[in-house]
Amino acid sequence: MNLDFMKKIKISFLSILCMVFSESLEAQQENSKTTAPQSDLWLTYSGLEGPGKNKHVILIAAEQEYRSEQSMPMLAKVLSKHHGFDCTVLFSVNEKGEVDPTMPAPFKDKTKRHNIPGLDLLAKADCLIWISRFMHLPEEQMQHFYDYFDSGKPFIALRTANHGFWGGLKYKKGGKNVSLR
Length: 181
Prior knowledge:
Number of domains: 2
Helix content: 25-40%
Number of strands: 7
Structural class: alpha/beta
Order of helices and strands: HEEHEEHEEE
CATH topology of the largest domain: Rossmann fold
């Protein structure tokens, strides 16, 4: 066989493969039964069969060192496909609403704040998995974390989440300040 013919076969095969995967993704998103609405600001993965069926996990990617904007969607896909959880991945975004792992944390300008759209979804979540580093969020976004912590639901904090937030000690438990940093 000639080399040009082989190249045409490869290109045709890759084109068909891309169409199949894109149609599969569109079908998965259209048939989504997740507890989170669709948005351009976060990702949703519908759970298949498994022990996590009808349970909603929120995953948050908000750090600048460990590529969580790549790993958290991968983890969400595994949890949904192999364990049945409905998963929503939230991201820290820049002023344009784009995921930007180069954003500084903390900001040199102490009046500037990070932004994680969709934190209101924590109110209906069954579990939270997050990785963050020195996030300086507006107080109304931090309140979603405080409410989740007070709910007693499980959360898993990965890697730099032990210093996940930057700012004052506004979270109180039993009348005492609790450091989230």
